[in-house]
Amino acid sequence: MCKVSAIDFFVCPFTSRNYFFSTLRTMRLRHLIAFFAILYYFAGCTVERAEEHILARHANGVKKTSIWVYPDGTILKRNEWYNDGIKELEIPYEDSLPHGEFKRWTGFGDVAMIGRYNKGKKDGKWTVYYQNKKVEAVQYYKDDHPVGDWEGWHHNGQKSFEQHYNDSGNAVGVWKKWHDNGVLAEENSNCHDMERNDSAEYTPIPGYIKRYGRNCKILEYYECVEGQKEGSYKLYYESYGNPDTTGESCNTAQIKEEGFAESDILFDPHTTYRADGTFIKKIKSSFFKGREKIQWFDENNNVVRESNFITEETDGPVESTGITYGTCANSSTLFCAETSFVRSGLPSGTLDSCTLSFKDAYKKNIGKYPASLRYIKAGHVLLYEEFWAYDDPPSSYGDPTLRASRSFYPDSMGGRMASEGFWQRTHDGKSKRHGIWRNWYPSGILKDSLNYVNGERVGEQFSYDSTGKLTIHKTEAGKNRPVIMHILGN
């Protein structure tokens, strides 16, 4: 039995009439017996055509996915198309598994990728192409996992990367990336965040990762353990200029931040620097005590703010109590945020006083309501406050959650409340809007009154103009549910 596709029709051997008589005329008599024996053998050959079955179509009706199937259910191949009818990919099948040469095309009909499958698994060389038919990358597979040396090139022909794998598909050696100007962009030694493909005993090899700018100057350095960034690290200010062709100065740059990264430490100890080398901030912390001290410095390396945390014994994660601060945008000496922590790594407790650099602009409201977090957003005039607290009585979650949030206009605009809303802890320990949420105009006139249930708008929702006139009244029943709009009277 001969299986043939409908598009690549194949006729069984020796069934052509012309071929039959031309062969008779040229063959010698002693070959006739063998000829008729062969003809008799193929007389029982029947032709089966594979038919196309469309599995999906694009929104415009053009076929998107189809398979070619023989009458006995055997799959010949699978095709994908773009919505303009151009073929996107073709995968041959054998025994219902991808097997043979795989091809992918661009939307312009140019070859984008060529590879091979072996019984359903990627195998051998796979090549990726740019639209101009230049090679973008060469990859190798064995039993569906990467092996050998992978390489890639930028559109201009400059090398873009190299990667290395052993026969088990695990990353090995030093991986590299390059900028399109030929300058080294990254060097990675055993800092690959990948799962290992074998169960053999493995001794982690410490590694590192370095990243460089287009002028070859170093930008980042991290130590790694088991593929994760862990250990000392350094970040550098980016500089510009021509690359050092000798490479001697590529690992020298102005330090921006340095510290120690440890997955089990909530607040990694580190020091940040200004571009002139003076300190901005120092954080002292440890695995056993968590945060211990945070210091902020002015341009002359004088301490301008300091936080000291008290660590308490706990059966769970390290818990500390103290207050920390945040600088304003584009400033290292002005402070636009302050947060209280009580036996937690999350905000909690109440700020007894305010140390914001612009606190005098909000005298009417600071301290009026309990606040665990107080801040001024960049580009905004409002003062924002959040109150975080533990459950009462304490729940099994253990951590404090957001309970209420408010914002206030500055005294120069009347100093009234701008918004107020309430939150509720969900079953997963997070906070969602729950209850009445209101916003006001600077004049004190109500702007809108909204009702939330477990993070979704439910119930009556009202909006007003600056004169206090009702402009919108609707009834909602949650996300993606019908909304009832009420007609307002004159």
Helical fraction equals under 10%
Query: How much of the polypeptide forms β-strand, as a percent range?
Result: over 45%
Contiguous low-pLDDT stretches (5 residues minimum) are 4-21
How far apart are the first and last residues' alpha carbons, in Å? 84 Å
Q: What can be said about the biggest beta sheet?
A: 24 strands, mixed
Which tags fit this structure?
24-stranded mixed β-sheet, single chain, 5% helix, 490 residues, 2 helices, 37 strands, 13-stranded antiparallel β-sheet, mainly beta
What does this structure look like?
The chain is mainly β and 490 residues long. It has a domain at 1-45. The protein is built from two helices and 37 strands. It has helices at 17-26, 29-41, and strands at residues 2-5, 47-57, 63-69, 75-81, 87-94, 97-98, 100-105, 111-118, 121-122, 124-129, 135-142, 145-146, 148-153, 159-165, 174-178, 184-189, 207-212, 218-225, 228-236, 255-261, 270-273, 279-286, 290-297, 303-308, 310-312, 319-327, 335-341, 373-376, 383-389, 401-408, 417-425, 431-433, 435-440, 446-453, 456-464, 470-477, 484-485. The radius of gyration is 35 Å and the shape is extended. The termini are far apart.
